[in-house]
Amino acid sequence: MSHVPFIVFLLVFGACVGSFINVVVWRVPRDGWRSLVNPRWSFCPSCRHGLAWYDNIPVVAWLMLRGRCRYCGKPISLRYPLVELGAGVLFAFYYVMLFIFHAGPRAPRAVVLPSTLFGEIRVEPVMTGIAADWPIFALYLLLIAVLLAVTLIDLEWYIIPVGLPWFLAAAGMVVHTLVDGPTVPGALCVDPGGVAGIMAGGGAIGLLLSGVLLWCGVFKPSFPDGEPALDVDEELSRREGAEELPHLSSAPSFTPEQMRQQIAREIVFLLPPLLGALAAGCAALYVKPFALFWLNILQQAHWLAGLLGSLLGAMTGALLVWVARIAGTLAWRRLAMGLGDVHLMFGVGAVIGAGPVVLAFFMAPFAALAVHLWGFLGGKGRELPYGPYLSLASAAAVLLYAPVADYFGPGLAGLAVVLRRLLGAA
């Protein structure tokens, strides 16, 4: 019964967040980010009349108005109350799964309890309550809200506004830097002096270098005039509000050779991060620990361990999708995946870490394949936005990663030992 007040609060709070998600989904693709603050009031999409506060009560207002605008009488989409209700249910669901069933992330390091009659007991801390674990839980709620917004926008317009995943990435890095510790459930701590930590630092430096070279004009952006037109662009252009989306009216066409040239620019952009991570990893493997004496101090800095863990997750998620995009485009001679998906998994990885984001990457194709086959058999096969499936897999990975890691962990640990011996690492 002690959980009931929190569950009720999260149902209501989630519905309010869902109301804001509706605003983001409708305004941002059409009018940009400034539209979230100007105008400050909500309005009817049909008559543009401002709405009173009592017309904005999540779910209840739609029911009281019987699904019609108070001023023009036109129908209000059922999507609005469903998103509000869905967000509330998701917030409460994750509370139940994390704090009641403990089906969620664990701490990076187990706690060894004092010796007992049966010997020492090793316990992997899990989330136990809001009072102790609210920063990570709040970060996960932000993740769910962003994934829901991304899913709705991508399903409707086949785009992912990059501001959403980058805001998520910034929040993830800040939270993990401030609160992560060896015994904090959901922490992404990596040893700053270990291979993973040093590779994360080297990759981050390389990514920063690529960004500077792109900003200075040394590296050229791919598809500077917009990504290639999709098969569904003609259908999308007939939707209400489509004239306000420039990517629908100005999507260029590319020959296979032009596609390869544009993808080559992305490969060049990826070289500094990859080479930086590889060089750092070689240094971690072959340089004696006593030669890196300064790492003894850094290894005690939990904030650095959390930041590196978040960076490692962000770069792992982005790299997996980016490599799939490049390989698929070169193989099929058409754009295999949008660059928005790369940004999305960068943000997701910064929140949930490298291991869960890898799991999400491999889970997403199964849902996408099932839906695509269903549409193909029904004669409605077409290009699919991949963002919703990545979002679904990412949300599931938060809850499923721990048992999956338990199952595959011993084998992967043994493989790591074999590789180190083959490489002759120190």
Can you walk through the features of this model?
With 426 residues, the chain is mainly alpha-helical. It folds into 2 domains: 4-101, no CATH class; 139-233 and 250-423, no CATH class. Helices cover 64% and strands 3% of the residues. The protein has helices at residues 4-31, 60-64, 79-100, 130-157, 163-179, 195-216, 233-236, 246-249, 256-286, 295-298, 302-332, 339-352, 354-377, 387-423; strands at 111-116, 119-123. Strands 1-2 form a two-stranded antiparallel sheet. The longest helix is centred in the last third of the chain and has 37 residues, at 387-423. It is globular, with a radius of gyration of 24 Å. The N and C termini lie far apart (54 Å). The model has no long low-confidence stretch (mean pLDDT 86).
Tag the structure with descriptive keywords.
2 domains, two-stranded antiparallel sheet
> Percent helix among the residues?
55-70%
So how many helices? 14
User: How many beta-strand segments?
Assistant: 2
Largest sheet: 2 strands, antiparallel
Structural class: mainly alpha
Q: Roughly how many Å apart are the termini?
A: 54 Å
Oligomer: single chain
User: Overall pLDDT, averaged?
Assistant: 86
Order of helices and strands: HHHEEHHHHHHHHHHH
Note the overall shape.
globular
Alpha-carbon Rg, integer: 24 Å
Regions with little confidence, pLDDT below 50 for 5+ residues: none
Measured by DSSP, the beta-strand proportion falls in under 5%
The number of domains = 2
Strand neighbour order, sheet with most strands: 1-2
